[in-house]
Please model this.
Amino acid sequence: MRVSEGRVTVTVPEQPEAGKGADVFFNPVQELNRDITVAALRAYRERTPRVSTYLDATAASGIRGVRAAANDWETTLCDIDDDATALCEQNLERNDLAASVRRSDANVLMHSEAFDVVDVDPFGTPIPFADAAVQGTKHLLCVTATDTAPLCGAHFESGVRSYGAVPRNTEFHAEMGMRVLLSAMVRTAARYDIAARPILSHATKHYARTYLEFDHGAKVANDCIDELGYVHHCQHCLWRDHDYGLIADPPEDCPVCDKHLQTAGPIWLGRTCDPGFVDAVTEHVTEEMGTADEAKELLATLGAEIDTPTHYDQHRLCKRWGRGAEAMDEFIEKLSDAGYAASRTHYGGTTFKTDADVVEIRESTAE
Ligand code: SAM
Model:
């Protein structure tokens, strides 16, 4: 079947079982991910004008790399599968675009060549590609992870094995997953004296996506490691706190309700986006993109999200407190009026971030 996205039209196999099967993979639901990728590539070229090369390391039909090539990136498309690389060739030709197509294990390619921007969009976890991707990236590494159950602690052992961190299944599960992923990527880059800082990250539907800007040097890599730490969380009253450092020293009991606390980490506690870059990406979401409205709305929420490591869900809190939920704008206004920083988040319509703790939230939003 033919699919048009942005400025290109590609052919992809019919996907009878939601993307599963022997044919070359294509998931229409990832159009938002790809639209934001194209906008991020445009914005990144303005931020770092010397960049020109882009590797779509796990290309499948090539739709992502074809769209990069249509935006004047010197593009390489790689896939381990013969049918995929044949389709990449056809899809480039169909759009009258030139790019290099490699049938290779992406790890082999990324260990032997470096690209200004590398994009790893694999099945499930990106961790099997992480070391090679760090080696093969000069400036910006874009990573998708679709293994949300291990990342957020729902599949605990698998999360521990893949990410070398303890994930916990909390009510802020999508953010837990994002910060576990970022922790693993930051630690991987630090092994090579590279600081990998997220300049754009979003958790959408069934995946986490992040864009990591690289800076080389032991000192800056140390600075990144300093932004790792632990979150302590009470499943009962939903109180939580965080500590920086790699040595866990968790408090045993919740200071509010005395119940046992759960600790997750080491997770990334730093910023997940650079608001200036989010604004620049927004400028580059253009009308030919099929998800332009959704992308702009997502980016607007991301840009306004305050910088705290976990978010709350108003409905969950109100249920615990035995009171009715209210309109989000009014709820957030009450927090602001009480002197706290507060914003909505992109993790869900009833989620918010604030620098108030759970007791302060309850008191300041009471009728
Ligand atoms: N990026 C694509 C898109 O936006 O439509 C989807 C990529 S699909 C989720 C993952 C692809 O990775 C598959 O085509 C698979 O053949 C490829 N792949 C799996 N292991 C690989 C490896 N070691 N090296 C290169 N490609 C690999």
Q: What stands out?
A: The chain has 14 helices and 15 strands. Residues 173-190 form the longest helix (18 residues).
